[in-house]
Structures are given as structure tokens and as C-alpha cells.
Amino acid sequence: MLKEFEGITPEEKETLKREIKEAREKLMGQQQMLRDAKLPVIVLIEGWAAAGKGSLIKELISEIDPRFYSVVSPAILPETEERYPFLYPFFSAIPENGKITFLDSGWMESAVRKYLRHEITKKEYQRRIRQVNEFERQLRDGGYLVLKIFLHIEKKEQFERLRSLAEEPETEWRVTEEDLWQHREYKRFREEYEEFMEATGELLPWHVLDGSHRKAAVRDAMALLTGEIQKGLDEGRYVGEPFDEEFPMKEMPTLAEVDLSPAIDDEEYKKELKKLQKRLSELHNIIYRKKIPVILCYEGWDAAGKGGNIRRVAYPLDPRGFDVHPIASPLPHELNRQYLWRFWTRLPRTGHICIFDRTWYGRVMVERLEGFCSEQDWKRAYNEINEFERQLTDWGAVVIKFWIHIDQETQLARFTERQNTPEKQWKITDEDWRNREKWPQYEVAVDEMLQKTSTKNAPWYIIESNDKKYARIRTLKIIIKALEEACEKHFEEKME
To answer: How far is Cα 425 from Cα 430, in angstroms, rounded to an integer?
Structure first.
């Protein structure tokens, strides 16, 4: 792309002004149609330092209603955000339906700079390219319009612009050491930009614009943006087809095959609980120092004992180092974004523990059975979820998923007890009884979920919970074993 790039021939100023004015008026008219069609738009502006990315964005937003767009510079991260996965700042920035997000540099700049700075290995760099392709496909399949622009200037032009900025007291602050380093390493950057664009341009193409002619670049960017929006308005929101990628899987039984008889007596329970909570507390300190993130996921039948189980896990943890996220129906601003957004934005920092009381698996259970998403959406979600969890474990997270399992008779007994006990009545709702009537349908959905998403890097564990105390002890043992293995792996990697 950059190898074959040819600059444009200068055009008459009046012609450019007229074309820019026409494109700007078209964009102004498209705003309301975008909102009505609930089409979200992401405009990624990548390019060389001093190529004019900021100026280009300024021109693109000049006549757009400021209530319906945002400008984000996610490639420049504070130290706190560096403690999250690679895609965290980019997924966090995606807009609501009907709005536009402009990214001043993004996933290419972040990956290429870290690679050329030797902050990540070649293997990690290739992994990030794969993650970008997954991210872009998930956005497209979720109905997002994504426009990727690279603003190109030659090395001599970059030098002149950097020097001009550095010589003026009012603008010298805009020239950073990173910019000067990029200029010195122009050839290496050009090669890596080329490789990155070739590796990530098949699904959503890159558009290279000539940054040496600012007005022409504005005109061309305006034409690309209005054209992409018009195409989306004409064709309607895109819905991706389901597809399967092979992941290394952990073999799982069906729920009907699980023996729910295991139990533990009170004396043994108290003894084990005290010992295991003490060990978990010790491990929490270790993973904090080693900066290992931990994500615990709870799903299960109503009244299966998720809340009590979570309390016994959380009790020994330092409250400054963990969060519990109870997941309910999405709020309007969550419903208006790609469904994984509200989970990306709740991820823990490195060294912290995050407990999800219900998770992204609602997509293939309640949303599937209640018709809150299309059949294409929930069928596609199995692969999207596996990709999401692989990205988390690639980052170094320990991901453990529990299905808290009981039989129908036990659930009925617990429902009845709640309904007949005044201080527990708040725990039982009409929706619980309604969901109980759909037990067979939910069981089919859960079995499919377990078979298709219990990967070796993020396995499911079915926890027998007819005896809640037994379930708590088993859960603690699984967590402790996983954390001990993660700490040992961390040590071995340090020794290599």
C-alpha cells in the first residue's frame, strides 16, 4: 500500500473548497438519518507524526452536532490503562448506536510502536494483529460502520513539518521525543505500517490519503466518510453470519449426566472453609505482586447458591483488590453498543480479581430464549466469546467459569422456602417462576453453551450445588489450584 503510493496532483483551491463544502453539507444531512437508523460509526485516523491527523479530524467534525460524536486518542495511554488488555481502550471507545467516534490513532499505532520499541515480541505482535482482525470483524458483524484512514507523508515532508513546529514557541510542545524517534526510524515504521495494513486490510480495507496536500486529504476523507455512511443507510445494518473456529476444547458432560449427590458434613465444611480461605488470601497477595489478573464467572440456575458461593470466595480477599459485578438486563447505553462492551469496560487491572455474577453468556441463554437477539446473533456469539476469552488469557488472565448446578426438585424447595420466609421473599420474583417453566429449553441451551465454549484456556466447571456447602468447598479448591498453577507458570516464564 505505502510502497505503491503515489501522491495526488495539486488541484485548484476553489475546486477543493467547493467539493469540501458539498461533502460537509452531505455529512450534516446524514446525521439525523444515522440516528434514525441507529447506525454506529467508527472513524480510525492513523498516520505519521505531523501528517495532520488532528487537523483532519477537526475538519471532519466541524459541522457535526457535538452531542452525537466523540474524539478519542486511545493510543496515548496513562499507566493505569496499560494494566488492561491490548484492545481495552479501543473497545471502551466504541460509540452508541447512531453516533460517531473518531479515533486519533488507534490499534495500529499502538501495536507497531510497542513492537519497534521491543516492548512486545514478534509473537505478541502477530497475536495483536490477529486480535485486531477479530475485533474489526466483531464490530462489522454487530452492525458497526468502520472506516480506516492512513494519512501518509514522505520523510522529507515530515522533517519540514516537525522542524516548523519545533521552531515556534507556541507549537514546540507538539513535537515529542516519540515523534523524533519515529522520524529517525522512518524506514522501519514504513515497513511495519505496510505489514500491518496488509495483514488487517482484507475484511475492512485501509484508505491511504496524501497528507502532503491538506485540503485534498480533507476532501477525500469527507468523500470516504459520507460514502460509507450512505452505503450503510442504503443497505441497512449488517448482521454477520455464524462461523466456527477450532479452539482446543475441554470435554464436558451434559447437565443430565452430572451426579448431584456429593455432600459434606458441617464439621468438615468449617474445617475446609477456614483452611481454603486462608490459602486464597495468601494467593491474592501473590497475584497482586505478580500482576496476574483473575476473572471468575458465575452462571447457574436460579436459587442454585451463586450468591452464597461468591460471598465465601470474596470474604478472604483484600477489598481493595477485587470487584464483584452483578449483571442484570443491559441499561440503554449498554444495549446500544456491541454486547461485549459492558464486559470489556468491567475488566480488572493486572493483579486484581473480578467476579462476574452472571456474564456475557446471557447472549446464548436468556437473550437466545427470550428473543432479545436474532438467531444469527446468538449462534455467532459462541465464536465471539471464545475469541474474547482467548484475548483475556493471552493477556495473562486466569479465567474460570462456574455453572452452579441443582436439580428441579431442589430449586422448587428453595423457591418455596424463600416465598414462605418473610426476610427471604425479596429473593423470589414472578420472573423466577416463569423461568422455571422453561427449564427444559434452558437445559438445552446450557448444554450447547458448555460444549461449545469450554476451551482449555477458559474452561467451564459444573459445580454440584444440591449441597451448597459442598459447592463452596469445591469452588474454592478449583480457584486455588488455578491460581497456584498461574503463579508457577509466571515464575517459570521469568526464569526463561
So the answer is: 11
In one letter, which amino acid is 413?
A
pLDDT for 391-439, tens place per residue? 999 999 999 999 999 999 999 999 998 888 887 878 788 888 888 899 9
CB 467 within 8 A of CB 262: yes
13-235 folds as Rossmann fold (3.40.50)
Q: What gap in Å lies between CA 165 and CA 161, rounded to an integer?
A: 6
Residues of the chain with CATH 3.40.50.300: 13-235, 260-495
- Dist. CA 85–CA 344, nearest whole Å: 9
Which H or E run includes 357?
strand 353-357
How is domain 260-495 classified at the CATH fold level? Rossmann fold (3.40.50)
Instruction: Quickly list DSSP for 421-486.
Output: -GGGGGG--HHHHHHHHTHHHHHHHHHHHHHHH-BSSS-EEEEE-SSHHHHHHHHHHHHHHHHHHH
Question: How far apart are the C-alpha atoms of 65 and 377, rounded to whole Å?
Answer: 31
**What's the sign of the alpha-carbon dihedral 55, 57, 63, 69?**
negative
Q: Is 213 strand, coil or helix?
A: coil
Q: What integer pLDDT is reported at residue 74 of this predicted model?
A: 75
Cell digits of residue 413: 424447595
Cα 84 versus chain centre, distance: 10
The pair phi, psi for residue 250, each rounded to 5°, is -95, 130
Hey, what's the cell of 319?
A: 477489598
